[in-house]
Design brief:
The protein is built from 8 helices and 5 strands, in the order ββαβββααααααα. Strand 4 and strand 5 form a beta hairpin. The N terminus is likely disordered. Helix 3 runs antiparallel to helix 4 and helix 5 runs parallel beside helix 7. The relative contact order is 0.08. The radius of gyration is 25 Å and the shape is extended. By secondary structure, the chain is of the alpha/beta class. Among the domains are: about 110 residues, no CATH class; about 50 residues, no CATH class.
Length: about 240
């Protein structure tokens, strides 16, 4: 919970030695597919120590759960493995990546060929205690999960840390938006200066305080404008 990023990693080691990395993403991140492959490579390569044999390597799996749609497919659950291009032969079972796209779960209910996985998806999507209670009554494993969640929610320190994490995520999103807006304003200011010469302080202040839609509109007007008045014409 002390992690200030949006991603939450859960590393699982099974009795067989296999490892599973569970990634939960609430917002789209750059190069997410490459990240997933890197997470797998990190787990897989980390197994070998000096003097170890390649036969000691065990399968590693990455499970990415997103609160946004990543793929064009309508499926809620997609599995990726290394297969031959011109056939179904699997090169190795050592690499496996699963993608669970929560927004697609409702519409894919008629394709419910994985009831246990669907139940977990509904658990993650539950919007109220009543929804969680209903799922817990239907599935003993989910009841264990709900009981664990209730214990965590009753822990004042854990709840405070979770709230701090949520505030950090909100702050991160606001900071990213502000940085993007400042970057656009800087570009528009530069283009205005190139086209019309040194800008008055009032114009610079207007650019700094402008919203992103305003900056976008002004940058488009720059293409055909013959004066600063043409760029800023219309309502503020």
């Amino acid at each position: 919970m002390d992690d200030k990023s949006i991603a939450l990693d859960v590393r699982v080691r099974l009795a067989s030695g296999e490892q599973i990395d569970v990634e939960m993403q609430s917002q789209r991140r750059p190069a997410q597919r490459e990240r997933s492959l890197y997470y797998w490579a990190r787990l897989y390569a980390g197994q070998l120590r000096r003097g170890a044999s390649y036969t000691d390597l065990r399968r590693c799996v990455v499970i990415l759960i997103t609160n946004y749609s990543e793929l064009a497919t309508a499926r809620f659950h997609s599995r990726f493995r290394l297969r031959q291009d011109h056939g179904a032969e699997v090169l190795t079972d050592q690499l496996e990546i699963h993608l669970l796209e929560l927004p697609k779960l409702r519409n894919a209910a008629h394709q419910n060929d994985e009831p246990n996985l669907t139940a977990w998806g509904n658990f993650l999507l539950a919007a109220s205690d009543e929804d969680l209670e209903t799922l817990a009554m239907e599935n003993p494993v989910l009841k264990q999960a709900k009981d664990a969640l209730d214990r965590l929610s009753a822990d004042d320190e854990a709840r405070m840390r979770a709230e701090q994490r949520e505030m950090a995520e909100i702050s991160y999103a606001l900071d990213m938006g502000a940085m993007r807006r400042q970057g656009i304003a800087s570009v528009v200011q530069h283009l205005l200066t190139v086209k019309f010469g040194e800008l008055a302080p009032g114009v610079q202040e207007r650019l700094v305080g402008a919203s992103e839609p305003e900056l976008q509109r002004w940058s488009e007007r720059l293409l055909s404008a013959t004066s600063l008045e043409d760029v800023f014409a219309g309502p503020r």
